[in-house]
Amino acid sequence: MLSTFVAPLLAYLLLYKYWAIFCVMFVSSIILPLPTNSLLLATGALASQGFFDFTLALAVAVGGNMAGDCVDFVLARRYGRKALHMLKIRTPWYVVHLEHYMRDYAGLTIFFTRFFATADSFISVLAGFSGISTGTFLVYSLLGNIVSDGGVLYVGYFFGSNWQAVTGTLGTVEWVLFGMFVVLVLTVSLWYRRRSNGRKVRR
User: Which domain holds residue 29?
Assistant: First the structure.
């Protein structure tokens, strides 16, 4: 049984096909949380029945994700600090420590957060705000999107008409991974804060 939100999304997919894939992935990767896993699973299932070309669907999905990721990254890189300065907002301590975290673990963080859309846009913004190089961001974001989108598409392709049976499991896995990521980031951020406070005390 499809949810009241997923059903019209799939109707949109069948009507506009590759344009629908691009638009949904683009909007989701910018800020609006949409059920992209359901969309990709359904696309993979439809590809197994000949309604979509698997490789083209993957390229369009990755392109939509990358476009949204780049919008977040560029806006934060160009206007993030200017906006805080204009609003006379001091950068919070946790953002400062997250910046240190990003500079030390930029590649891995960008890559792994492409697997759960909840953190995708946040990390893209943080990467731009932290001054991560454009090349580093593009490479790891591209690799992460290819692996994550390709994996979900393949699961849908493999299960075919039974793709709905794995949506709940996939959602649970995504939330578990997101929880682990949040715990990791908080732990490292607090470690940076303690190290920073320790240096101030020694001075």
Answer: 6-202
Q: Are 157 and 47 in contact (CB under 8 A)?
A: yes
Residues with Cβ within 8 Å of residue 166, at least 6 apart in sequence: 41, 155, 159
Q: Which of helix, strand or coil describes residue 51?
A: coil
Render pLDDT for 52-108 as a digit per residue (tens, 0 to 9): 999 999 999 999 999 999 998 998 888 766 666 665 656 555 566 667 667 777 888
Q: How many domains does the chain divide into?
A: 1
CA 105, CA 184: separation in Å to the nearest integer?
Answer: 12
Domain assignment present for residue 60? The answer is yes
In a domain, 13, yes or no: yes
Q: Residue ranges of the alpha helices (H) in the chain?
A: 6-16, 18-30, 36-48, 54-86, 93-113, 117-129, 134-159, 167-202
In a domain, 1, yes or no: no
